[in-house]
Structures are given as C-alpha cells and as structure tokens.
Amino acid sequence: MRAVWCTKAAVPDSKRACAVSLILLLAAFGASSQEVVTAEAYFSAVAETYAEVDDYEAAFQFRHDDQVSSGSISYKHPNKLRLDFDEPEGQVLVSDGELLTVYYPSLDVIFEQELSDRGTGGGADLASREGLRALRQNYAIAYLVGPDPVPLEEDDDEPVTKLKLTSNNPSEGFRQLELSISASNLLRRITGLTLNLQERVFDFTDIRINQAIPDARFDYESPPDANVFTDFLFGAEG
Question: What whole-number distance in Å separates Cα of residue 183 and Cα of residue 49?
Fold first, then answer.
C-alpha cells in the first residue's frame, strides 16, 4: 500500500491517516528507545542486593511430596544457617559452616555431617550471595513470562518477577529452578525440579535483613540422650 505523507499536497481526506501514521511512528520510536532489562541483568541486580545482606531472619514454608513443614530461618554470611521448625514441632537444622546438624525429636535422632562446599539447606541456602553466585555459574537464566511483575499465584495478587533457571551441569541437585522475586529484590519463593522430576517449593515471608544476628545462634547443643549418626549425607569427607 502506498504511504501517505503529511504534506501540503496531501488531500484533506488523508489528513486523519497522516495524523494516525505520525502517532504510530512516534509510539514505535518511544517503545524502541526504552531500555529492556535482560534476565541476566535483572538477576545481577538481585545478586547486588544480596551482596549487601550480612544476615537475615524470615518465616519459611517448605513443600514437597504432599508434605508441608514450616518455621523460622536465620542466615549469617558466609555459611551459617539455622531452621527451627514449628511443623514438625521441635525439629532443627543448623549449620555453623563446618558441621551440619539435624535433630528429629519424634525419632530422638541426630544426624551430623561435616561440610565442605556442598549446599545443605534444601533450597534455603540459595538465598545468599554465595548461593546466587553458584546459580549464575551453573544455570542458564531467563524470564519465565517476561520482565513485568506477575501475581505470585493465580489466587494471590502479590507481585513478583519470575525467573526460570535451567541447569547446565548434570550434577546439580535441581534440573530447573523458578525464582519469584519481590519488588525489593529479595527471593520470595524458590521452586525447584529435582533430577527425578520431584518438585520442591521453599517460601520466604516476613524477611528482615541485617539484624546483627550473633554467632551463638548457630551453636547447637544436642539432646544428650539422642542417638547420633554421622556423615549421613555423603559419607566421610576425608
């Protein structure tokens, strides 16, 4: 179709078409001039936020295999982590960076594991500057639906930006991750798909950063009568 240019030679009936064409041209120029934030750049902004997080506290909920557990989480840079469970009541997972301890009060059993550089929080330890660094190294990063915020769930209008991370390392515990990120660039939800296609969902709420958490919170005194099993995750580190 022949273009109609807005000139004095244009017939009166074409003036409306000229105006519409000009508006569309300006709109297209404005849209193309807006900076599009790539998924990699957005992930970098989230990582920069966590680079300033020395510690945090939050409530958590963990869902897997039709089971739900919940409680409170404490983290301190670089590798201290503690989960105190309300459900199952009294269960504790704590790492001082060198030793991981898990207490199951219903079984009166304690599992202990000396740590090297492996993750230990079942997804919780990804919410840290170290965790995000590992994700950048081992996963391809893309938007799940686009850069604009979307509801966390269909029946929940909490706005989050969702990233899809696909593993490029077959030894990773998750083949795929979905990160739901709040407006303050903090991880609101981590949804992981394991190598055997099982889903794990870790939610963080009431997140409070840089609370000057003392190291003593990550010291754990085991109940003296509990049975203790060592090196339960990977065998002796050697």
Answer: 11
Q: Which residues contact 73 (CB under 8 A, 6 or more apart)?
A: 57, 58, 59, 60, 81, 82, 83, 84, 124, 204
SS3 29: helix
pLDDT-derived band at 123, boundaries 50, 70, 90: low
Measured at the CA of 236, the angle between CA 70 and CA 220, to 5 degrees, comes to 40
* Of 208, 199, 202, 205, residue with least CA distance to 158: 205
Look at the block and give the residue holding tokens 């557990």.
69
In tens, the pLDDT along 37-72 reads: 899 999 999 999 999 999 999 999 999 988 999 999
Residue 175 or residue 19, greater confidence: 175
For residue 98 the two structure tokens come to 């060198």
CA proximity to 231, closest of 111, 149, 109, 145: 111
DSSP 77: T
Residue with tokens 């060592």: 230
